[in-house]
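re: ur msg from earlier - yeah i can do the MRU complex, just paste it... oh wait u already did. ok heres what im feeding in:
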Amino acid sequence: MTPAHITYENGVLRLLDQTKLPATVEFVELRDVKSAANAISRMIVRGAPAIGITGAYGLAIAVRGSAGKPDFASALKTAADGLIKARPTAVNLAWAVTKVREEVTSLAASGASPRALIDAADRAARSIHDDDIDRCRRIGDFGSSLLPSGKDVMTHCNTGSLATGGYGTALGIIRSAWRDGRIRGVLATETRPLLQGARLTAWELLSDGIPHTIITDSMAAHFMKTGAIGAVVVGADRIARNGDTANKIGTYGLAVLARAHGIPFIVAAPLSTFDPKAASGGDIPIEQRDPHEVTSYAGVATAPTGSSAANPAFDVTPAEYITTIVTERGALALPFAQSIDGVLTEIRESAGSRS
Ligand code: MRU
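and the outut:
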């Protein structure tokens, strides 16, 4: 079992520092919203659902500092904007922060006391966290049955407990499939430049006793050609209405390779990862990170000083390369444009009937 990586008590947010793994298990304690935004942009916490949960707790901390003050509404807006800007691609961050903000704003409009606002924000953030763990378990169980039996699964980046509230999305499917005796083992791509596959996915798999082999990103085609890979399973940071999917840089290449080798390419994501405002992948902003992440590692130069480098953190896989998208409501049927519209309409209607 990996240690609980996000905990929150009385306005103190405690995060496992993922930049230090696997060498050091170290926690940071955050007491203000700016530190929460900073932890997200520095990737102390990362993974779409996990940064959403952190953003929600970050906003709950902001509510503590501003509830009852005359500038409450504007302070809340500034805090929410700062959190949302911390990382632009994963829509779960904006989704979670907006959810907490809306909850608190509507209570404030009804004249609730500062204490009631603080409690409501804490409750909303905690429920986003608990709910995510539940969604991941359902994704895992739905996805397990889709994997071909007795083969290896390839995965990219880290989509496990560390990237979510717990259990994981793509790694949740792998966990459930291992429990069900469906898969032989896992090929984890190292995931340059920040090595989330080698550092984090391998750490989680090792702790669960799931057999795995780390490969460099450039080995993927070679291993697909051997016939040992039954499926490629990845997570998502934002899914557009037509099924185009933004995920860790390198995902698009794996999807094209999987198609060339006749291997199913499965995307796993909770419905909080779908962006009703994005018609297609062209509407998804791609985070550009510091090129030094490419030209050095752990403070050691890996390229000559003076060379320039590119560092898009995500790419967009066109929907036509995706075999299935597994959500907490099951696998979405083709064509995705229609099935995504169906689930998003259901969610809108059930939210409308509750209000
Ligand atoms: O830059 P990162 O490490 O936050 O990127 C994470 C990914 O791309 C994951 O695949 C995605 O967020 C899904 S996590 C369940």
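cool cool. The first helix runs from residue 33 to 41. ping me if u need the other ligands too
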